[in-house]
Amino acid sequence: MARISFILILGFASTLIAQEKDSVVEKEFSGPQVGESLPALVATGVFDDLAGKPQNLIKQGDGKTAIIIFVHQFTRPSIQVLRGLSTYAKNNAEKVHESIVFLTDDIPEMEATLTRARRALPQKTMITISPDGVEGPGSYGLNRKMTLTVLVAKDGKVTGNHAFVSTTAQTDVLEVVNPIAKSIGQRPPTLAQLGMVQTRPAPNTGGVNVRALLGPVINKMATEEMVNEAAKRAEAIFAKNKAAATQIAGIAQRIIDSGRLESYGTKRAQYYLKKWAEQFGPKKDKEESK
Q1: Which pLDDT score, from 0 to 100, does residue 135 have?
Q2: Which of 39, 66, 99, 269 could join 57 via S-S bond, C-beta 3.0 to 4.6 A?
Q3: Mean pLDDT of the chain
Q4: For 131-135, which contacts have Cβ atoms below 8 Å and span 24 or more sequence positions?
């Protein structure tokens, strides 16, 4: 009997260990890591006098702390991060230089998109498009699964690497700028100083920002693979967080009811919106009165 009990306990422990391993999410890397040198980086200017002209982004940041933002997915939350970081850079222009690099396989389409969105983009900021396609320059080792890759560098060396799969502006901006502020002898900025209004997650979602999860799914520039990966990450959270699942169902249903579903993301994204509205929304009574 003792032997049987021991075997049962051992089997139970093995199951727990296996579950623990399955629950571990491997960290995603993107771009040069802290301590590494920044490779050469040339991108094409988009607006005004810089339009169509190659820009040496490493040289322009000489002597200053450089913030280089690679935009893998152009979403509303990612724009908010760009604006917050740009405000910080402009407020500290003597010590900080910022560059934004959009990644795409269709440069003319990206130029048109940025022109349409210009008023929402940071003003008086170096905005460029990489000529190296959606993967960016090969020497940078960027990960296209990200929404943003933010590199911070000083004297050609990486001092900060922030790879965001999805973005939450209020937390992500401070994650980037607080170490910079410390390095240049300043107090960390407040959200108000960055022109950002503090928002709270929807009640009872345990801090989960559902709209930040939705952003990469409905990104119109995302491939089907990218949409599937973003949806998989979101569904893993919805499976554990009923309140977040209920909230996404409500958002999806409102989009469907508005008659504007086709305006949200790709066909694959629209599939997930319909799926979530049905899967996580109120269950219809099968015994409805006739």
Answers
A1: 94
A2: 99
A3: 84
A4: 131/42, 131/43, 131/44, 131/107, 132/103, 133/103, 133/104, 133/105, 134/72, 134/103, 134/104, 134/105, 135/103
pLDDT tens-digit map of 210-264: 888 888 898 877 889 989 999 999 999 999 998 899 989 988 998 888 788 888 8
Are 162 and 25 spatial neighbours (Cβ–Cβ below 8 Å)? no
pTM: 0.65
Residue with tokens 């502020």: 181
Looking at this protein, which amino acid is placed at residue 15?
T
Q: Nearest-CA neighbor of 181 among 65, 63, 35?
A: 65
Q: What is the mean pLDDT of residues 142-150?
A: 92
Q: Which helix (H) or strand (E) covers residue 43, if one does? A: strand 42-45
Number of Cβ atoms within 10 Å of the Cβ of 28: 11
Rounded to an integer, what distance in angstroms lies between the CA atom of residue 7 and that of residue 77?
A: 51
Distance between terminal CA atoms of the chain?
60
Cα–Cα distance for residue pair 123/135, rounded to 1 Å:
26
Q: Note the pLDDT tens digit of each residue in 155-184.
A: 989 999 999 988 877 788 989 999 999 888
Phi, psi of 148 (to 5 degrees): -135, 145
Taking the C-alpha atoms of residue 290 and residue 27, their distance in angstroms, rounded to an integer, is 54
For 155-199, the DSSP string reads TTEEEEEEEESS--HHHHHHHHHHHHHHHTT-PPPPTTTTT----
Angstrom CA distances, 120 to 74, 77, 81, stand at 12, 11, 12
